[in-house]
Give the backbone structure.
Amino acid sequence: MKNPVDYYDKLQNMTNSELEEILEHPENHNEEKVIETMQLGFERNIITPEQEEICNNYINRKEKSRIENEVNITQKTVKESKDNEVGIFHEVQKEIKEKGTNYLVGGIVLVFFGILLTIASYTKAIKFTEEKYSIMYGAIIVGISLIIRGIIFKVKIKKAFKGVK
């Protein structure tokens, strides 16, 4: 984009007929040049109301076009932002679902091994006629709590994301 001062200085050296040509056909020139030509036309008192209207319409069309372009860019940015939000939303949803699944699986594994070790300890006590055996209640209780936590996660996730695609 040229500096308006440069246009103004160059236009000063133009004849009135050259300026009138710009005023009659502003679409052949850039907006800054047309604006400076209008200014000079007013100073030289050579611009007609028709030329002023032609130039203003040209400038307004350019401005409208620029605004429409900015609106289109903004709409595209908003759409991309929404698409990005949807992507992030689905990632978060997936991570939360995985967390609930991890709680369930971890709880089931702990309960399984707690029961398995308790059975092994009881079997050993019977086999060797010992009176004592171990009940792995810690692993079983923690496993059950993880299972409950996983179920709660799953239920809350279904309610929270109900109707979300």
